[in-house]
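Quick one - first record:
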Amino acid sequence: MEIKGKKVLLMGLGILGGGVSTAKWLVSKGVKLTITDLKSEEYLKPSLERLSDLKGKISFILGEHREKDFLENEIIVVNPDVPITSPFLEIARKNGKQIENELTLFYKFCSSRKIVAVTGTRGKTTTVNWIAHLLKSKNPDTLIIGNSPEKPFLQEINKCSEDTYVVIEISSFLLEICGKSEFTPHVALITNLYRDHINRHKSMEEYAITKSNIFKHQKKDDFLILNKDNEWTDFFIAQKPKAKILFFSEEDSIVGKDEFVKLWGVHNLQNFAASSLVALTLGVYIAEIQKQISSLPQIKFREEKVFENENLSIYNDTTATSPDALIASMKRFLVDGEKVVFISGGTDKELDYKKWSEVAQKLIRPENLILLSGSATEKMKNELGWDYYKESDSLEECFSKALEIVKTENKAKIIFSPGAKSFEKFKNEFDRGERFNLILKGLLAKVSRRL
């Protein structure tokens, strides 16, 4: 694919870094770049400042999208937050424009074809990091892409050589255009599929079809790894993948179950089973995998312990953005008889909290659940049906209430696990997690004196 001199429209700059990275890479390739974003110049100021050294090389259309920009440019590069149903993308498609995103561009320009692509509803980030950890025993240059705002795709592309293993975390948003744009990972892994992102994909079947784009263009010498225990696995098989299909299950794990669950929780058995199978598929020996277990990395914002003293442990699980993720967190921490307080709640994305409420009613007392107000929180309360709730409009108030509950306990935990999105109060779940850590830091002296 040759793009030098082409007229390119970047649709969506955003403020998380991916848009800036994509813009800088496109300019470095010699394109004639225009950026359009519905957000205002004031909102996009952090990103615009990062592009200030490219003044004169980029045209900006901010606060609106214009039909003519989608007609006059040859290539449209789409930010993942832009749904494929956008009427402006429909204009581009009808007029034969080439549509790409940062994932498809990365694949087309990356020199490595040793690509492991991971998608799924839960466990993606942990699994990606653990796969890379295991593969580094074979190839220290293994690279992780797309699993945090700090590692956007095109910012990392120059680190790839032909021999680099590249482990990519891929959301369903990025996979939307991959059905019509070549993307052929050597190993594709779907960790699981649960109800999520229905506000974007409209139905579970549409969500599953989008996920299946990860293997749509694989060849017979590639590998597709599926979760034997997930109800959507048969649906993926029915799409008739061409790759060799392998299955993982927590029952097939090569690790000592009891000890592992104590350290990482039962839900991480599946993540480790999936990671191990990928490593085995790519030639890492079982003995080497077992040797690496003791040094598995703790993933930021995934049930991450952010404070501990002799009386209190505090965990930041801000990336628990669905009821299923909150269930997993509750089942891990509400088991040993200690006082455990959960801070949960947030923005609804058309998810069902009935199953979560059944688990919560069995595992936690009303006084130990603190809710952060939001549209999802209203759903949680309706499903629980309790007589009273501890609820606050601010995260700091929620945390202060949690401290009051545990202040007289000899051994206690506070778990920040929202089980919902964050857009009513925060930019995203990462912003929410950073804010929680800042609140904790600000109250740390108080915590240490009182507990």
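second record:
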Amino acid sequence: MVRERKAIGDGTGAKAPLVIEIDKENARKDIGALDIEIPVLTPRVYREYQSLGALDVSAMGHQRLLYLQFSAEEQREIVFKDIATGEITHTTILDTAGVADYRSVIGYFAQSLMKDLRLVSGYDVLYGKIKVFVQNSLFDRTVELEDPNTLRNLSELAATKLLTLDYVNAQGDMGTYYPDFLVKLSDRRMVVAETKGQADLDVPLKMARLRQWCEDINRVQDTVKFDFVYVDEESFATFKPSSFRQLLDGFKGYKGSENGVE
């Protein structure tokens, strides 16, 4: 790897930050015509902690798990896994007289969910929902929470995976997405351009949100029509569009004609 060399220490001048400003010296440029007005909508996704209380755990639409029967020796080994990644966090081996408390297991699931979903409150509500779900809906039968065999079933990967509730997005978080470019084609048409060198798991989520945003904007007003285009580096290098029109015509990923944004 070759790195750029720069002098440091006494006698070297300070490197000022690069400042990008509007070119106001060009007399032919109409600065006012370049203004871009971006409508502000109310959020489509937000955290509503009170909605946890309205969560119906009996209507999750999941496939119930087979309730397995473990030996007495197997029941002594309680394996705690991260419910988001499936990785083992720690293993508890009970002694011959030891009995694990289901409350600590349910509490572990509740705390893990809160951490994964970035919740700062609602533990008591979430704890109660998980308790009812495990007892009545997780397995193919109603189970006794105090039964050591139930606790051993809860340490299985299938059970821990099913307890990652589909509550927000794939990462269990709500992020803020800032598009790369706003392109003003005219006073009545605007295009949001997103460029990506290497696609990641967030790209489909971001593009779905951008698509929905354009639909919402175009539905509530007709002064300016908003469109979007997703440009990946590989396709750009392969097809080499020579105009923005070619870019719009050739890059239609994440769009589809049914969204009404052409």
